[in-house]
């Protein structure tokens, strides 16, 4: 009986096993995103078990399960999907984006944070914003896109320096540029603020970066966000994040474009007939001649200018502006390959740019390559590497204050031919003919830059990780300047100059991160670490002359070495930092950070400084009294306070007593070069920010409103010393500056339908600054046409006040502006400019900047445009005393000088033409102009071919587009362009133009191809 029962049980077990086996089946399928693109690496798990698999490269999967089982499909950024197994052996899944997972993430320095819970003021630009503006200088993509951020290109040269001011001026003589951080690597201006060695004109230190490798740019504007960078954050911090591979099908993209450029504006100058008319009249009116003598003298000069041509018949009428400028061209090509699976992410890109500038003999050619790769070696350990290389070759021209620059050709007489009959440059012109350099000289700069980073992350616990990063930035710049025997002003048989600048920095960062949610309510994130940075810079140069032939154009070809330099510079930083953020229920937000920096640049008594910051926020829309509102979708209040520093205060050794080698009677010696100051330290800024973020109608309307106040103390000055001290001045921290402003951002989704969407972004910001104290009992500090005075803006214009023209006799008039006994100003006029007192006449910095961007999508068309506006700034035309002075000397004049005074009763602002008389030629407000403008910064129209048309070609996207930059400018500015500035002396003469080129107006045709 027992044996029979045992046999029956065995039979039942076999039948049950066979039944179970019969119910298990193989399920396969394909997983795609909403656009139909396969998704590799999707997790496919049998619900309630740990059994699962992943989709392959093409999104395919296979798994064994029972009928009635549930398959769970999960993927980062997509909504988790469940499918019940039925009778079919195929289950295909199309996943949908999860908006909650795709919430905007902000890079905050040594980590990231959700925009929703952010208590700081940070502006973010994505790769889409950056790629809209094809340009060698990627910083131009920031223009008008971020509230409170002013971006100005120095001039229209292809290598021209870029000046970025975050929330206005924060220093008087210290550095004004923000700190750039590339993938966690703090970048420095490798040339110490000059940009080069040979000409004194600064280049853009980030010219070596290409826009195609950038994923996002986050601009830290307030102290709470920037304080994590301590002594280098006072001018703001720009965090640049490069692209990485993303999970999904591997992608290959190719972008090609061709652009055509011309100046945004060229001023009109006198033609030959007008030149003869005006200067003949000026000669007859000259107080140094009788009318007939004056005319005879002027006609003699005309004979010289005309050479072998006849100026009386108008044989030559040279438009020197057309000779100096040319049509520009811009070729761009870039590609990238990227992808990722569950363990490995990779991104590789290459880019090529070839730009012929709008100024003769100015061009740039650049190649870039980047490799970013990361790998999850174990469940706890992840490592990666970012590496980039670039080579930039620039055909340079001289700075604005040199006759060799093409831009000064506008001063030449139109009676002079630019070239002689044999095609050679005319050497007999009023001033040196730049074409002599164009034909017989060259100035070439080559920049090679390698930026690399290796990093590792180890997770001790799911909530605790440790990061170790080592990065290296190598900047190598060579310059070769050769001037042949027939070059401009060349008195020897040729001259060659060669220089070599090598700059490198090492950064070693170690930090731990704790991130955990407790009890589903308390979210805590803590970062703490250390950082060490070492800077090395070496500069050498050599000059030789007396060349047997212009074909031997290197230094070794010269018979005599006449000069040489050699400089070695070093500095270092050591830092300790910590940051903690806390939010309760996702609506009560707190943050605090501190950084302690030590720098070898500062005095031995003040090497270290501490930079704290705190901030808080409250998401009111999460409260019950707002939560059910159908109108208000988001409302957050936030406030912050913090201290920041500016370490860019005069090179690597501003605090030390320096000596230099000298030669006396052909014997070596030492001489003092700089007095020391053991208490010299960084400029420090304390900043307060109060803001509100809002959203209405489920985010259809959103924006931000901020007020900030920034107090900077310990301003760096070179304070004059008494002659008996043995030095002219000493670097000291004396002075305070206060800046404040309001920023407003408004984002709207105006129309959202299946076929048409229209979104807008508007931002506007106001900034003012005022000096509160200065050295030597608040004594004025005057530099050229600028003044630093307590109660006024930094570097205000300080000029005589032009009063127009006496209608009775054509004399130029100036207001006396002397002080009356009662303290008022004497507003009487004088013809003697030396009697007129200078006044504060304007501000070189705009008080109001704005941007307005619109994006429209209609079926397969995309249309984007951005307007930029600036108001409140003035620009002084330093060349005006030559260009627009009613024929005072023989420089060609702007056409408005034809409206000069000619007879009693004439009402005009242009004095009578009088050769050599100085009638209105003194530096004054006559040459100061408001620089208000509105500019169509960029506009782009694109068309993406339908998928059905490109699938057979194996493409996932094909877009053709046309883009224009600086297409339209609305302004009353009378000079070249309201964004053109002199590239001489940099920030020491802010707001001044001097034969400066306008920026380029560029139209680009291009195609984007994705595989």
From TrEMBL:
Keywords, sorted A to Z: Cell outer membrane, Membrane, Receptor, Signal, Transmembrane, Transmembrane beta strand, Transport
Positions of the TonB-dependent receptor plug domain: 115-237
Region forming the signal peptide: 1-22
Subcellular location: Cell outer membrane
UniProt keyword Transmembrane present: yes
UniProt entry tagged with the keyword Transmembrane: yes
Disordered, as annotated region: 978-997
Compositionally biased residues, Polar residues: 984-996
Membrane topology: Multi-pass membrane protein
Pfam family, one: CarbopepD_reg_2
Protein family: Belongs to the TonB-dependent receptor family.
NCBIfam families with a match to the protein in the record: OMP_RagA_SusC, SusC_RagA_signa
Protein name as it appears in the record: TonB-dependent receptor
Organism of derivation: Sediminicola arcticus
């Amino acid at each position: 009986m027992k044996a029979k029962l045992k046999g029956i049980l065995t039979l039942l077990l076999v039948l049950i096993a066979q039944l179970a086996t019969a119910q298990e089946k193989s399920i396969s399928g394909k997983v795609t995103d909403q656009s139909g693109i396969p998704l590799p690496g999707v997790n496919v798990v049998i619900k309630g078990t740990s059994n699962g698999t992943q989709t392959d490269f093409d999104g395919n999967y296979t798994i064994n399960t029972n009928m009635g089982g549930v398959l769970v499909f999960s993927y980062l950024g997509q909504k988790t999907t469940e499918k019940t197994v039925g009778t079919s052996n195929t289950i295909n899944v199309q996943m949908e984006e999860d908006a909650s997972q795709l919430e905007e993430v902000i890079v905050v320095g040594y980590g990231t944070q959700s925009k929703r819970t952010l208590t700081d003021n940070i502006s973010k630009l994505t790769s889409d914003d950056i790629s809209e503006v094809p340009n060698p200088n990627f910083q131009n993509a920031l223009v008008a896109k971020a509230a409170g951020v002013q971006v100005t290109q120095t001039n229209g040269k292809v290598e021209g320096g870029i000046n970025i001011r975050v929330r206005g001026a924060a220093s008087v003589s210290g550095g004004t540029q923000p700190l750039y951080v590339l993938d966690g690597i703090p970048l420095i201006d490798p040339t110490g603020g000059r940009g080069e060695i040979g000409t004194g004109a600064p280049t853009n230190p980030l010219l070596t970066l290409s826009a195609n490798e950038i994923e996002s740019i986050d601009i830290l504007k307030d102290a709470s966000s920037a304080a994590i960078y301590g002594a280098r954050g006072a001018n703001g911090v720009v965090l640049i994040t490069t692209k990485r591979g993303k999970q999904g099908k591997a992608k290959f993209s190719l972008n090609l474009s061709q652009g055509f450029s011309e100046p945004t504006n060229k001023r009109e100058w006198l033609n030959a007939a007008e030149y003869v008319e005006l200067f003949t009249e000026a000669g007859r009116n000259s107080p140094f001649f009788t009318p007939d003598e004056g005319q005879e003298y002027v006609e003699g000069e005309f004979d010289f200018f005309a050479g072998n041509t006849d100026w009386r018949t108008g044989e030559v009428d040279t438009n020197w502006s057309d000779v100096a400028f040319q049509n520009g061209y811009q070729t761009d090509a870039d590609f990238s390959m990227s992808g990722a699976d569950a363990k490995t992410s990779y991104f590789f890109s290459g880019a090529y740019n070839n730009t012929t500038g709008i100024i003769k003999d100015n061009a740039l050619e650049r190649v870039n390559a980047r490799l970013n790769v990361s790998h999850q070696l174990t469940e706890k350990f992840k490592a990666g590497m970012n590496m980039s290389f670039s080579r930039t070759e620039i055909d340079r021209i001289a700075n604005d204050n040199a006759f060799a620059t093409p831009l000064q050709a506008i001063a030449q007489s139109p009676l002079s031919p630019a070239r002689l009959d044999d095609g050679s440059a005319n050497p007999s012109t009023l001033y040196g003919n730049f074409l002599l350099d164009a034909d017989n000289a060259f100035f070439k700069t080559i920049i090679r830059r390698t930026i690399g980073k290796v990093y590792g992350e180890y997770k001790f616990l799911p909530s605790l990780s440790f990061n170790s990063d080592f990065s290296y930035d190598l900047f190598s710049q060579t310059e070769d300047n050769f001037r042949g025997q027939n070059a401009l002003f060349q008195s020897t048989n040729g001259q060659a100059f060669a220089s070599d600048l090598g700059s490198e920095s090492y950064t070693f960062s170690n930090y731990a991160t704790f991130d955990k949610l407790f009890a589903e309510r308390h979210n805590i994130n803590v970062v703490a670490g250390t950082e060490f940075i070492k800077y090395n810079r070496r500069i050498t140069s050599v000059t030789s002359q007396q060349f047997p032939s212009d074909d031997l154009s290197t230094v070794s070809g010269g018979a005599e070495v006449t000069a040489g330099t050699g400089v070695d510079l070093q500095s270092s930083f050591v830092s300790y930092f910590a940051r903690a953020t806390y939010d309760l229920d996702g609506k009560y937000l707190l943050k605090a950070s501190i950084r302690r920096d030590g720098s070898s640049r500062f005095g031995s008594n003040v090497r270290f400084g501490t930079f704290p910051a705190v901030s808080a926020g409250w998401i009111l829309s999460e409260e019950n009294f707002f939560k059910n509102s159908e109108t208000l979708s988001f409302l957050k209040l936030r406030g912050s306070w913090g201290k920041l520093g500016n370490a860019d205060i005069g090179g690597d050794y501003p605090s030390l007593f320096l000596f230099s080698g000298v030669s006396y009677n052909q014997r070596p010696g030492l001489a003092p070069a700089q007095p020391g100051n053991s208490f010299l330290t960084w400029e420090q800024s304390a900043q307060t920010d109060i803001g509100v973020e809002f959203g209405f109608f489920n985010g259809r309307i959103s924006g931000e409103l901020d007020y900030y106040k920034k107090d900077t103390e310990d301003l760096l000055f070179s304070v004059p010393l008494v002659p008996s001290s043995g030095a002219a001045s000493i670097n000291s921290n004396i002075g305070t500056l206060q800046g404040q402003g309001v920023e407003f951002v408004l984002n709207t989704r105006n129309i959202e339908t299946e076929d048409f969407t229209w979104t807008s972004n508007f931002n506007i910001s106001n900034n003012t600054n005022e000096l509160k104290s200065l050295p030597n009992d608040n004594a004025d500090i005057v530099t050229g046409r600028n003044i630093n005075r307590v109660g006024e803006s930094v570097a205000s214009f300080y000029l005589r006040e032009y009063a127009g023209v006496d209608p009775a006799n054509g004399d130029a008039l100036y207001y006396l502006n002397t002080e009356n006994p009662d303290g008022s100003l004497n507003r009487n006029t004088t013809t003697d400019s030396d009697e007129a007192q200078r006044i504060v006449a304007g501000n070189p910095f705009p008080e109001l900047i704005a941007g307005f961007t619109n994006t429209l999508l209609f079926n397969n068309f995309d249309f984007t445009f951005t307007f930029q506006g600036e108001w409140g700034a003035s620009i002084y035309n330093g060349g005006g005393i030559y260009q627009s002075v009613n024929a005072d000397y023989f420089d060609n004049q702007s056409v408005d000088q034809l409206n000069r005074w000619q007879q009693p009763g004439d009402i005009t602002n242009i004095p009578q033409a009088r050769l050599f008389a100085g009638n209105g030629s003194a530096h004054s407000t006559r040459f100061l102009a408001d620089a208000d403008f509105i500019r169509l910064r960029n506009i782009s129209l694109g068309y993406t071919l339908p998928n059905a048309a490109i699938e057979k070609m194996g493409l996932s996207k094909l877009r053709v587009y046309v883009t224009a930059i600086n297409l339209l400018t609305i302004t009353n500015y009378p000079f070249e362009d309201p964004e053109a500035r002199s590239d001489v002396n940099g920030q020491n003469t802010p707001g001044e133009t001097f034969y400066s080129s306008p920026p380029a107006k560029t139209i680009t045709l291009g195609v984007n191809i994705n595989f």
